[in-house]
Amino acid sequence: MPLESIAAGPWSLLPALLAIALAWYTRDALIGLFVGIAGGAVVYGAFRPGVVGVPDGLVGQPAGTVLGGLLGPTVIPELIATSALFADPWYVKNVLLALFAIGGLMGLMIRAGAIRGVLEALASRVDSPADAEKASFLAGVIIHIDDYFNCLVVGSMMRPLTDEYDVSRAKLAYYVDSAGSPAARLAFYSTWGVALVGFIGAGITAAAQQNVLPSGMSNYVTQSGDGLQAATDAVWPLFFNSIGFAFYSWTALIVAALVAWQVIPNIFGMGVEEERARNGGGVVGPDDDPLVSDEMANYEMYEGATPDWRNFAIPVAVIVGVGLMAMFWRASPVVNAPGMSTVFAALGYELIVPAGGPWSFNIGGIRLGLAALTGLVVGFLLFRARGDIPSNADATDAMVNGFKGIFLAAAILTLAITIQNTVTTLGISDFVTDWFRGVPVGLIPVLVFLTTGFVSFSDGSSWATYGIMFPIAIPVAFSTGANLPLVLGAVLSGGIFGDHCSPISDTTVLSSSTSGADHMVHVRTQIPYALVCAAVAGTLFLVLGFVVPGEFSLIPY
């Protein structure tokens, strides 16, 4: 059972602050994350001494509060076990399973010469470090069906190429992190499209429950046996409006492209990393601790294997194909409209297209775990059939090496998601809500952007942040008269900004891991670029907050 949520006020920030400060100081994310979780447990015990075993006679007294804090760490197992990574089947299927399945597949690909084949194929088109950087950026943009999938595949695929041309691992991690995630948030057909519609719907429902939903939007919610629920079909136009105002995502993509094309120079720590790499000092620093195991880094291709890029492309294509099919193979039409027309019918299937009226979408959820596991099986069978891996035992060893290579990232990811559960349990949502009281309407968008960025930086997850902030920001927009699409774009932008800056971010951890970079070096070198993008986005939210009328929208809703 999850722990009962409490209202710890500013104390709800303590776990994140401890984790981030210690991660910076020790350059070890695991230490910072665990201490942050322990700090949150101490706070919980102090606020709920009875839950951690303090006698009833001491509850409510100073001695009981102190004893509760001392006994608080006893709830750490509950915080870990009830975090989304273990308590939510979606995370188990689509994060844990996918993480290890793709790790095992990468071990097979190295052994079968697939990675070497990609390197040789790209080498014929790439003849300089600048070309390697452009290829890394484009790969991050192209493979954007899911940000986890992007991190897991692009880093592993491009690392041999960037190593060959002395591009630092920190630079590769930047492209993986700053291209894939923003692109995924802007694509309605990605895993984030469906998720964001759900988050926005939760905000609309919260507004209806607070009686601030405009009467003209009453069709956005429906009454059911479980209470009010968002009408998903009606929410899609709001999502498309948020894309237009997602200034941080657009800016991050543009800046990353300009960096890749050498228009924007390497700045601060990135300049140091790149100068050392170009001068032969190594793609990682001598004191760095790359998030990839020695077994994975030193694992060798089977001497009888034939390097072939198709050994990489076929399993990846299977993963993408299965993922897309899970999203778009539906019993009911994927695209709906008031008027629909049947083009043709065969074998019980019909091709139905919109014939008039506003469109809405019925897109299924991502099944990344199923897709990754299918890719692993296909890779195993393909490499054995072609003789690129000599035996089943050798293939098993290759997969185990892949699992080892991803284990540290999995450990950090586990603790990072536990931090999210900890700050949520301590009531960070209620604490943040109070920040918007009495704020001038023109400042609402930029304040929402900065607040969302701070929450995302603190909990390390734009996913968790959206779950907190959309139900806060949407009622605030309605009650103050702020422009709703602009506020939605501010939430969308702030979530990615904080994610890019946080050392406890799940996607930042994965970017470091698959790129083979030192995690804290990646964080430090990416932050200056993230701040540049945030400054541009923040300025736009500030100016447009005063200029754009409250009723303006890019698409009618």
What does this molecule look like?
The chain is mainly alpha-helical and 557 residues long. Helices cover 66% and strands 5% of the residues. It is built from 24 helices and six strands. The chain has helices spanning 14-26, 29-47, 62-71, 76-81, 84-87, 89-112, 114-123, 129-142, 147-164, 169-186, 191-209, 232-244, 247-260, 269-278, 294-298, 310-328, 368-386, 392-425, 428-433, 444-459, 462-480, 484-501, 506-515, 519-547; strands at 221-224, 227-230, 335-336, 339-346, 349-356, 360-361. The strands form three sheets. The protein has a two-stranded antiparallel ribbon with strand order 1-2. Helix 1 packs across helix 18, helix 8 (129-142) packs antiparallel against helix 13 and helix 10 packs parallel to helix 24. The longest helix has 34 residues, at 392-425.
Task: Please describe the topology of this protein.
Blueprint: H1 14-26, H2 29-47, H3 62-71, H4 76-81, H5 84-87, H6 89-112, H7 114-123, H8 129-142, H9 147-164, H10 169-186, H11 191-209, E1 221-224, E2 227-230, H12 232-244, H13 247-260, H14 269-278, H15 294-298, H16 310-328, E3 335-336, E4 339-346, E5 349-356, E6 360-361, H17 368-386, H18 392-425, H19 428-433, H20 444-459, H21 462-480, H22 484-501, H23 506-515, H24 519-547
Antiparallel strand pairs: 1-2, 3-6, 4-5
